[in-house]
Design brief:
Protein name: Nucleobase:cation symporter-2 family protein
Helix content: over 70%
Main location: membrane
Family: Belongs to the nucleobase:cation symporter-2 (NCS2) (TC 2.A.40) family.
Distance between the termini: 6 Å
Subcellular location: Cell membrane
Structural class: mainly alpha
Strand content: under 5%
Keywords: Cell membrane, Membrane, Transmembrane, Transmembrane helix, Transport
Order of helices and strands: HHEHHHHHHHHHEHHHHHHHH
Largest sheet: 2 strands, antiparallel
Strand order of the largest sheet: 1-2
Shape: globular
Radius of gyration: 21 Å
Amino acid sequence: MEQLLFKVEDRPPALTSVLLAMQHLLAALGGIIAVPLVVGGALKLPADQVVALVNAALLGSGIVTIIQCKGVGPIGIRLPCVMGTSFAFVGAGISVGLEHGVPGILGSSLVGSLVMIIGSYFMPTIRKLFPHAVTGVVVTMIGLSLTPVAIDWAAGGFGSSHYGEPGNLAIAGFVLLLVIALVQWGKGIISASAVVIGIAVGYLVCLALGKIDFTQVHHAPVFAVPQPMHFGLSFPISGIVAMSIAFLVTIVETTGTFMALGAATQTAMPGKKLARGILCDGVGSAFAALMSSPPVSTFAQNVGVVSLTGVASRHVVALTGVMLLLAGLFPVLGALVVTIPQPVLGGAGLMMFAMIVSAGIQMLGKVEHTKRNGLIIAVSIGCGLAVTVRPELLSKLPTFVKEVFGSGITVGALVAVSLNLLLPGRPVDFAEEEEGGAIEIAREVA
């Protein structure tokens, strides 16, 4: 079993912690900023309101990340979790916003977060729905669903006129090879910092080639304090229903992310621990709504950073939360990070997300080889991939169906859980797995 470089409770030296925290920041920042930009663009908001959404998203994500990592009473899983605005809410958010504006999105999110808060109290029961075969499927689908994102980054960004140009692929390939070399042959902090070093070198190469656009940096304010209730709140019934469905789906996705994180950090994930994490997601989303930010959830891509680097310290990721908070107060810092070309992120991202796939495959390799388990694994991954690689599959279905089944992670998880419950031969006694067997899962793939 490979040893972690830094365990969950370890506190690396200050400068080392900053460097390691920066890796998580780079992995998450684009996603956090993208959601308010997409929503703002769809609603045709003026520039100053989009900036306000971005600042609030960064500040809210930073504060909730700190709480998730450090814990406040029963809130927070106390593992290296980066929290951020989630694309799981984009579809519902835009549909609500087009009719009721940003106040409708935020008010619906505030009420909808109760679904996650209440759901957290049922996590010991929900945990029993995730035996080894189901957990392995969910972890694998997280990696498989994120990999196309990295491919789009590597090619230059989905929808870009320069998509797939040889220059983009060359830069992504260079960063990928550099990260591989640093992980394989680097020692100590060099290996642990492979992602941030690879991105930094790739950035310098792009700078020398004149591929960096500093326009956003020039227009970003140096300092700005997000205002609570900046847009106000409204509570349309249709919006509350839509957001509640999105939160229900997010419980399934976040549970899978936590299971993957448990494997990466060699930590048992009993129901009570999951409950603290889900509660933080719910309370954090309510707080984010009051801060004028879209809802937040645990970022799966940062599990890839942990898997790749062996740095599982929750205190390092809490520092990432501090950096996000500062980015919300100093928008120019966030704008500077956003100048990183997508091919650079793609090279590093492909490595990180593929590590999650690897972890899932190793977990599935430890599952008992029976016809029943084979059916669960094959059908659920097949259905999850169908939605991931062909999202237009759902284009003719009602909006409600697209909201629930729009994510390959969710589809894979729901199919796996359903088959596990319906197929004959299901183990009856889950007590052992709940209390002790979970640690075996966590360690099998370490």
